[in-house]
Amino acid sequence: MQIRTDYRDRVLYMCLSGELDEHNAALARRDADRLADVHAQSERAVFDLGEVSFMDSTGIGFLIGRYKKFRCYGIPVYLTNPTLATDRILQMSGVYRLMPKI
């Protein structure tokens, strides 16, 4: 799992790439939390899921945990470009009620 970032116009974009599962979530969690701390002045955070090749319940936990982290700073979180399989998991789990898809 890799996270590429772009920060422009007070929006933090995080592009996730690879598998978001039990084996990769810890590193991704550490990186995303560090980004939240560094960019605490952001107006919003956007997770781009277009390159996520696999996500299980650990991935859902990762996203909800990052939602809570950013919420501590008052930063709304959005999701974009989920793959078909990822989109289905996120719909069924109700994640879009916390983090809308844009």
Overview of the structural elements:
It is a single chain. With 102 residues, the protein is of the alpha/beta class. It contains 3 helices and 4 strands; from the N terminus they run ββαβαβα. The chain has helices spanning 25-38, 57-72, 84-93, and strands at 2-8, 11-20, 44-55, 77-80. Strands 1-2-3-4 form a 4-stranded mixed β-sheet. Strand 1 and strand 2 (11-20) form a beta hairpin. Helix 1 (25-38) packs parallel to helix 2 (57-72). It is globular and about 30 Å long.
Rg over C-alpha atoms, rounded to the nearest angstrom: 12 Å
Structure summary, number of beta strands: 4
Number of helices: 3
- Give the proportion of residues in helices: 25-40%
Distance between the termini: 22 Å
How do the strands line up in the largest sheet?
1-2-3-4
**What proportion strand?**
25-35%
Shape: globular
Please trace the helix and strand order, writing H or E for each element.
EEHEHEH
Task: Characterize the biggest β-sheet.
Answer: 4 strands, mixed
**Oligomeric assembly:** single chain
Mean pLDDT score: 95
Unreliable runs: none
| Secondary structure category | alpha/beta
